[in-house]
Write a structure and sequence with these properties.
heterodimer; A: alpha/beta; Rossmann fold; CBS-domain; 3 domains; six-stranded mixed sheet; four-stranded antiparallel sheet; 19 helices; B: mainly alpha; 82% helix; 0% strand
Chain lengths: 415, 305
């Protein structure tokens, strides 16, 4: 995958002499020291990152961490003070007004926290806005806007005013407005934060479904780690204008870079972050045709396990346990086939752990098969619980992330 | 007790005399005269037109307008008021006053809206124009009547120019205010979709500021009407002249007729422009709805909320 957006050493200073503030930062002063000394605020401080084409890159941080500033620098609603922003290899900071306008018209669309729908325009006119600005004839832009409304399931509301719609619906219109111009990059600035939790969950699911179909490059800003973990291919945790950690959901939760990240991740339901592949053991199994009771027992002893999968060719045939072998042996003329329990649970490597609970309750190991049905690993029930138990290794209670700017946001983290 | 003026007095009156009589009038009289041309052109056209329309036609037309933009109640009020105006014998003067007011308001809008837009886009311009507007609003009109007469002479058009000076500030202020109070996030969204500043103005700022601008227009209209009598001092006609002559002759009756005409005209115009400025659906059914309900058996459609 190629990099769609690359940011190098990106900084933003709010003040009249950014050069001076940046120099102080390079000399190792903190944000607060710079503020005290020069009266200038560091919004974003020397951030490097890249977003691959078709990737969902989530920036998570509390309010005041600079995440909104960061996303606005990507379409230059806010001009960066230092560094580079490359979109398809071209430095955005060098772009003149005309190039910038073209970029915003065609390549980069944005969805806003408080929807920012135009109250005097109908839903359809709102969705059409970007196309109208681009000078596209009205019949075509109407068609494309209706297409976009269709994608978010609101075509029946085209002629209503946004004020007639609920919050969730309004944000769908916001999303449709972004999608209507068919951009390559979608910037989403806390799009679901103003929605109540159930609607937010729906919108997340819907966005993921849309993304599977559209494969846009998305930079998604949020203050909700759950949301970040649900949506992000990669997640950046931001604090005081810097990235504290960048990684996949599993990397962030499984291996937090510092106490700050760890404090966020402690309340996260790990079973939703990790999937079967995280706890998968090697695919030990017995072939049905060349096994008998003795070899089966021997193998169980060698592996130190109480159950073993039996394959028929490449496909999983079932599972044998010490007990099923013992029961089969008591029967006259029984073969290994009679000892195999066919109710062995199976799952895919990408199945989240919380969906494995039911399979694990049988006590049998879960066979992990890939999309072609090949046996690729085993998840013993105890492995699931071992991973979940890692939660309690680190007890960070008491030093929940504090943010001096807006402590009110903090409870949302654990929501 | 001694006070500074005992020793020295600033000859402000002499300075102003010299500045206006010695410099402004001889050098710029032509330029000021030229400004009059479009104003008198519009005024004469409007006056001719309004006088040519038969009273019943005009009354019914304005009644329909009142019904469409406002309510049935206002329509009835309009019809009755215009009938009264005609019955007390000041119809011609009322039409002249209306032509003057409309001309003044038109030029106030032509000048004021762009100035308001400019003030909303530049803090420096706003800072510069604010004291000028304050002066225009606080200075008594009588003070500038004399220089106006010197520069423009007497007659209808100088009267309108005095009216424009008096009535201009609200539309500038409220255009500026209306544009400035458009939510920042909407402007940001408009820019994020690639709008140019001009497109932001036309697509987002002006439509959203329209209600406030209309309120400014309403204020300007009211101020213009309140100038009707003062403008008569320098030769403007209409209802103002009726009042002014009544005043001169201590003819209470004539002054009352002129005053009543101004008040009724003001009320009609005020209510209609206010209704234009608010999107809120009127409580009584509008003309279209009433007509529709005549032709369909269903109850009049309730407007969607």
């Amino acid at each position: 995958m190629t990099d769609k957006i690359v940011a190098e050493n990106l900084s933003k200073v709010f003040g009249d002499d950014p050069g001076q503030a940046l120099k102080l930062v390079r000399d190792g002063k903190t944000k607060d020291e710079v503020l005290a000394e020069t009266g200038q605020t560091i919004g974003v401080q020397s951030i490097d990152f890249s977003v691959a084409e078709g990737e969902v890159f989530v920036v998570m941080g509390l309010s005041g961490s600079g995440k909104s500033t960061l996303v606005r620098m990507l379409n230059r609603l806010i001009d960066a003070s230092d560094g580079k922003i490359l979109v398809d290899g071209e430095n955005l900071r060098d772009a003149n007004a005309e190039t910038l306008r073209k970029l915003r018209l065609e390549k980069i669309a944005m969805v806003f926290q408080h929807f920012a729908l135009f109250p005097h325009k109908s839903v359809l006119e709102n969705v059409e806005y970007g196309l109208k600005i681009a000078g596209i004839p009205s019949s075509e832009r109407r068609r494309r806007a209706l297409d976009a409304l269709d994608k978010v399931g609101l075509s029946a509301w085209a002629d209503r005013k946004p004020s007639a719609l609920s919050g969730g619906m309004q944000q769908r219109v916001g999303l449709a407005r972004g999608l209507a111009v068919d951009p390559e990059i979608l910037l989403m600035d806390e799009p679901f934060s103003a929605l109540d939790p159930l609607i937010r969950k729906d919108m997340q699911t819907e966005l993921l479904a849309l993304q599977r179909e559209l494969k846009k490059t998305i930079v998604f800003i949020t203050h909700d780690l759950d949301e970040a973990l649900t949506l992000g291919d990669r997640i950046a945790i931001m604090k005081e204008g810097r990235f504290v950690q960048v990684g996949t959901a599993e990397e962030i939760v499984g291996n937090p870079a510092d106490d700050y990240v760890a404090a966020f991740t402690q309340d996260i339901d790990r079973a939703r972050v990790f999937d079967a592949s995280a706890v998968m053991r090697p695919p030990e199994a017995l072939q049905l045709k060349d096994g008998d009771f003795a070899t089966a027992r021997q193998q169980l002893d060698e592996l130190g396990r109480d159950a073993l999968h039996v394959l028929n060719g490449e496909a999983v045939f079932g599972v044998i346990t010490r007990r099923s072998i013992a029961e089969a042996e008591r029967q006259e003329g029984a073969s290994l086939r009679d000892a195999v329990r066919r109710d062995a649970p199976t799952a895919e490597p990408s199945t989240p752990l919380h969906e494995l609970y039911d399979s694990c309750s049988s006590g049998l190991p879960v066979a992990i098969t890939d999309d072609r049905g090949r046996f690729v690993g085993v998840v013993p029930p105890e492995a699931v619980f071992q991973l979940l138990a890692k939660d309690t290794d680190k007890t960070h209670r008491g030093d929940a992330p504090a943010d001096e700017d807006d402590a009110a946001d903090a409870p949302a983290m654990s929501a | 007790m001694w006070q500074p003026s005992d020793t020295f007095e600033i000859p402000l009156d002499a300075w102003v005399e010299t500045a206006i009589k010695g410099w402004l009038v001889p050098n710029f009289r032509e330029a000021f005269q030229a400004v009059q041309t479009p104003i008198s052109f519009v005024l004469e056209g409007l006056d001719l037109g309004l006088q040519a329309i038969p009273m019943p036609v005009f009354a019914i037309a304005l009644t329909v307008v009142a019904w469409v933009v406002a309510s049935r109640g206002l329509a009835i009020f309009t019809l009755v008021s215009l009938a009264i105006v005609d019955l007390i014998g000041v119809w011609t003067q009322t039409m002249t006053t209306l032509a003057m007011i409309l001309t003044a308001v038109l030029f106030c809008a032509i000048v004021g809206v762009p100035l308001g837009i400019a003030a909303s886009r530049s803090d420096r311009f706003e800072k510069g124009i604010r004291p000028v507007l304050d002066i225009m609003q606080t200075i008594p009109p009588f003070v500038y009547l004399v220089p106006i007469v010197m520069l423009f002479g007497v007659g209808m058009t100088p009267g309108i120019i005095a009216t424009i000076i008096f009535a201009l500030p609200p539309i500038i202020r409220l255009t500026n205010l209306g544009i400035r109070s458009v939510p920042e996030d909407l402007i940001e969204a408009a820019y994020a979709f690639g709008s140019s500043p001009r497109q932001v103005l036309w697509e987002v700022q002006l439509p959203l500021a329209l209600r406030t601008i209309m309120a400014g227009l309403n204020q300007t209209l009211m101020l213009a009407l309140s100038m009707a009598v003062i403008a008569a001092l320098i030769g403007a006609g209409g209802l103002g002249l009726t009042v002014y002559t009544g005043l001169g002759r201590l003819d209470v009756g004539a002054a009352t007729e002129g005053g009543l005409g101004i008040v009724l005209l003001a009320m009609i115009l005020d209510r209609i422009t206010q209704a234009l400025g608010s999107d809120a659906p009127s409580r009584t059914p509008g003309l279209l709805e009433t007509l529709k309900s005549f032709f369909s058996k269903r109850a009049p459609a309730t407007s969607p909320t």
